[in-house]
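Figure 3 (text version): structure tokens given as input.
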């Protein structure tokens, strides 16, 4: 069993009958969704899923997981998702798979958020992983220029066909290659990005996660986050 599978299966244990569950996106969340699908089929688990991307929606539909959109539910009990980096103070970067917008919306309406990662994602400071910023196409060249002027090393994300990548909402992603985000500056950076016209969302997920499940060795490690 690989580490992503280990944490996906471990996290699925937190899913109980009757819950409304946010289903994350990416290669780690994939295993969570597979395990929930298995439990529905084999154990009669009864949940409603709220997906965070078209890819996860398709996977969940294939597995027969009942789904509702975020606008059809009163709340979300628990969201389980992957992450690209988690700092020692449990802040995160997400959006490596371009799903940050729906992920952040679902996470922000969730009573509890669990992140599942392999140990390579646990870092001291954020920023080695490029910070994704989702922007609307109109004005995106101006934002690229602004980020360049601020020495934030922006790169407009391309897809496998070398075309500009479009998110599930038809937006672009600008990745900021920051190398390191000082802990004291993380909130200010998030506030500044939120203030820019044309920025829809960014990949800094601050004060969101409640529990981190880390895949390492033969056993997952569970870290409770007190806020
Ligand atoms: O946009 C994608 C999401 O934020 C993913 O949860 C994140 O990129 C981690 O993905 P993976 O588990 O594939 O490393």
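Below: residues designed for each position.
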């Amino acid at each position: 069993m690989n580490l992503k599978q280990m944490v996906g299966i471990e996290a699925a244990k937190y899913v109980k009958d009757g819950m409304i569950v946010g289903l994350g996106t990416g290669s780690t969340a994939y295993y969570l969704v597979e395990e929930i699908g298995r439990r529905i089929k084999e154990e009669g688990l009864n949940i409603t899923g709220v997906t965070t991307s078209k890819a996860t929606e398709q996977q969940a539909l294939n597995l027969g997981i009942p789904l509702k959109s975020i606008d059809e539910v009163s709340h979300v009990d628990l969201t389980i998702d992957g992450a690209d980096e988690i700092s020692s103070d449990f802040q995160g970067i997400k959006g490596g798979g371009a799903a940050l917008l729906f992920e952040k919306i679902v996470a922000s309406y969730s009573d509890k958020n669990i992140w599942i990662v392999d140990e390579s994602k646990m870092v001291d400071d954020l920023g080695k992983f490029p910070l994704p910023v989702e922007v609307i196409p109109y004005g995106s060249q101006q934002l690229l220029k602004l980020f360049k002027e601020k020495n934030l090393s922006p790169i407009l994300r391309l897809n496998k066909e070398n075309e500009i990548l479009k998110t599930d909402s038809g937006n672009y992603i600008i990745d900021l290659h920051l190398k390191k985000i000082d802990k004291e500056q993380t909130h200010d950076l998030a506030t500044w990005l939120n203030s820019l016209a044309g920025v829809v969302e960014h990949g800094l997920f601050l004060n969101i996660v409640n529990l981190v499940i880390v895949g390492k060795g033969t056993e997952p490690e569970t870290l409770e986050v007190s806020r």
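The mean pLDDT is 97.
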